[in-house]
Structure formats: structure tokens, C-alpha cells
Write a structure and sequence with these properties.
Layout (H helix, E strand, L loop, with lengths): L23 H6 L20 H7 L4 H4 L3 H15 L4 E2 L6 H5 L4 E4 L3 E4 L21 H14 L4 E6 L1 H10 L7 H9 L1 H25 L3 E6 L7 H7 L1 H11 L6 E5 L6 H6 L4 E3 L6 H8 L4 E6 L8 H14 L6 E5 L9 H15 L2
Parallel strand pairs: 1-4, 4-5, 5-6, 6-7, 7-8, 8-9
Antiparallel strand pairs: 2-3
Length: 360
């Protein structure tokens, strides 16, 4: 059994517990008692940190994702500065698509842009299988990271099939997802086949990260809040479930997060997540009611709150902590990613405050 393949309730073949097994983060994901509520932030490694801007200077986004030493440094920066309870692997959701030969670029101020959108059955042939050799830099970087992080868990991540499909079909970010929905409603079989191929690619990408040493994984479905529950269940959930089922044998916690998904929370948990991420629009106690028992929750301070006074931040943070008081497991996070102009000191203070307020 590889290091990454140890089940969440087991120990590796050496008989010794993994370094991260008893971390507050993994305990919370397993809905076990914790010494304090663990904290990490989506986009904690990124533009809010001056050290990130310095080290990324002159390097394009996709290029930076393929340099193991640079990925390692960027991933470690918020752990050093903020003392968060988990690191998240620095990458981008389109990296596996780039790795299999899709012609795309990440344009500053725009996001991922696809040179030739995928909209016909013939286009599916461009989505070949992802192999570990395609992303050898990921394996190398995670090996370096787990050596540096010690007892701090590393979260691997990938984009969910729906969100990847939306980028591929639209050709880039979209406000209304009109091409995506036209395909989903107009050619349901082609849509299902597209999402199934993306589920296979995503599963392979997550497996590489887990086998290299990631202690948990998060599936980002950034755009799925654009769908009604019935459409999600019929046209999206099977592919997301396929991804979660593919990594289930590894036993690592599986987190699922989307934006504007208040109406989908129960279904997102049903898809196979162990932890359901909640944005800031739904209080955690209400989110728990929608998700149902047997799942931990992650969230959900509004990222914009961090621009308010220290007292206001603490008040709003206390509201989140109080709403989470009755949960089986809670990982404190923002309701979306850290905004680029956030004061890094505000994040450091937030980590300290949550730790202090929730110490058992």
C-alpha cells in the first residue's frame, strides 16, 4: 500500500500512524472531537500575499503550476504566515486539461480561455486519458511538500466535471452558461459522455495527488450554482459521484464545494462528499439541516468581511462559530476564495481568533 492509499481509519503498512492522521483538520473531516476548530482558506496561497507576488513575478500562471520547487514554495507560504491547519496544493483546475493537450491559456483578468471549444461528438476525441506521466511535476511537488509540511495535512484538488465542461464548451468563463446549457438540454447523450470523460480525467488527477501524499482532496464545482436541483441530479451528479467513488478506496476525506449552491447542498453531499463546503449565503446550522446527518461542513465567512474593522470581523466570525456549534464536524473557511486585495494580517488574526475561541 502506498503512503497515499492508507484508509482514513487505518494506518500504513509500517503499522505507524501517518503524520497527519491526528491533525485537527483530518479529525474534523472525520467528525471526531478536535482540540480547536481547524482553519484553512481557499486561495490562501495567492495574490493576497506579497511574497507570492514576488516569487511569481515574470512567470505565467500555468507555467508556475508546472515548476515543483515554485509550487512547493507558494503552497507553504500561507502555512508559514497564517499558521493555518492545512495547506492546499497550488495549481489551477485547468491543469489536467492542459496536461492532455487542450490548447488553453489563463489570461490575467479573464481566466482560462480555450482556443477551440468542445461542442460536438468529434471534439470528445481530444479528451484523452490522463496518465501520471502527464503530470509528473505534481507527484514531484507533493513529495517535496509532504516532506516540508510534517504534521500539517496537504489538500489536493481538482475541478468538478460540470465546471470543467463549462469552460470547455463556453471557451472561457461565462455569466449565463448559454452554450453549456444548450448542449446539456439539447444533446443529453453527448453531454453525459462529455462529463463522463471529464470524470475519468479528474479522477486520475486526484489519484496522482493522493498517491503522492495528499491527505484530503477537494472537488471544486465553481459554476454548478447556475443549475436547478433537478438538472443537477439528472445531468451533473452522476459524473461527480463517479469521481468521489473513484477515490473512495484511498480513504482520504473528500470535500465538495460550489458557489451559490444553497439549493444543491443536500445533493452535493449525496454525490459522495465526506465534507460539504458552504458559501456565505446559507448559515451553517441551516446548511446542516439541508445536507443531513453523516457529513462534516466547511465554511463559511463572507470573504468581504475581512475588509471591515477588526471588531466587525470578530463579530461575524463568532456568528459562524456559533452556527457551527451543533455540527458533527466543522472546518472553518471562507465562503469562497480569499480576495486578491485582502490584508494578509487580517487572515492571520482570523486564524488566531478561531483557534482561541474554539479551544477545547
Amino acid at each position: 500500500m502506498t503512503r497515499g492509499a492508507a484508509r482514513a481509519g487505518d494506518t500504513p503498512s509500517s503499522g505507524q500512524p501517518t503524520k497527519t492522521y491526528d491533525s485537527a483538520f483530518l479529525k474534523a473531516c472525520r467528525r471526531e472531537p478536535v482540540p480547536h476548530t481547524p482553519v484553512w482558506f481557499m486561495r490562501q496561497a495567492g495574490r493576497s500575499l506579497p511574497e507570492y507576488l514576488k516569487v511569481r513575478e515574470g512567470t505565467q500562471m500555468l507555467e508556475s503550476c508546472m515548476q515543483p520547487e515554485l509550487v512547493t514554495e507558494i503552497t507553504l507560504q500561507p502555512v508559514r504566515r497564517h499558521k493555518v491547519d492545512a495547506a492546499i496544493y497550488f495549481s489551477d483546475i485547468v491543469v489536467p486539461l492542459k496536461a492532455i493537450g487542450i490548447d488553453l491559456d489563463i489570461k490575467p483578468g479573464v481566466g482560462p480561455v480555450i482556443a477551440e471549444p468542445i461542442r460536438t461528438r468529434a471534439d470528445l476525441a481530444r479528451l484523452r486519458d490522463l496518465t501520471p506521466e502527464d503530470v509528473q511535476y505534481v507527484t514531484e511537488a507533493i513529495g517535496m511538500l509532504t516532506g516540508e509540511l510534517g504534521q500539517t495535512p496537504l489538500i489536493g484538488f481538482a475541478g468538478a466535471p460540470f465546471t470543467l465542461a463549462s469552460y470547455l464548451v463556453e471557451g472561457g468563463p461565462s455569466r449565463n452558461h448559454e452554450h453549456t446549457k444548450a448542449l446539456m438540454y439539447g444533446d443529453p447523450q453527448l453531454w453525459a459522455d462529455l462529463l463522463d470523460r471529464l470524470a475519468e480525467i479528474t479522477s486520475a488527477f486526484l489519484k496522482v495527488q493522493i498517491e503522492a501524499g495528499a491527505s484530503a482532496v477537494q472537488l471544486f464545482d465553481s459554476w454548478v450554482g447556475a443549475l436547478a436541483p433537478a438538472d443537477y441530479r439528472r445531468s451533473v451528479m452522476p459524473a461527480s459521484t463517479k469521481v468521489f467513488d473513484a477515490v473512495a478506496p484511498y480513504g482520504v476525506p473528500r470535500i465538495h464545494f460550489g458557489v451559490g449552491t444553497g439549493e444543491l447542498l443536500g445533493l452535493m453531499g449525496e454525490a459522495g462528499a465526506d465534507v460539504v463546503g458552504v458559501d456565505w449565503r446559507v448559515p451553517l446550522d441551516e446548511a446542516a439541516r439541508r445536507v443531513g446527518p453523516g457529513k462534516a461542513l466547511q465554511g463559511n465567512l463572507d470573504p468581504a468581511v475581512l475588509f471591515a474593522t477588526r471588531e466587525a470581523v470578530e463579530t461575524k466570525t463568532r456568528e459562524v462559530v456559533d452556527a457551527a456549534a451543533g455540527l458533527e464536524g466543522h472546518v472553518f473557511n471562507l465562503g469562497h476564495g480569499v480576495l486578491p486585495t485582502t490584508d494578509p494580517d487580517a487572515l492571520t488574526r482570523l486564524v488566531e481568533y478561531v483557534h482561541e475561541q474554539t479551544a477545547r
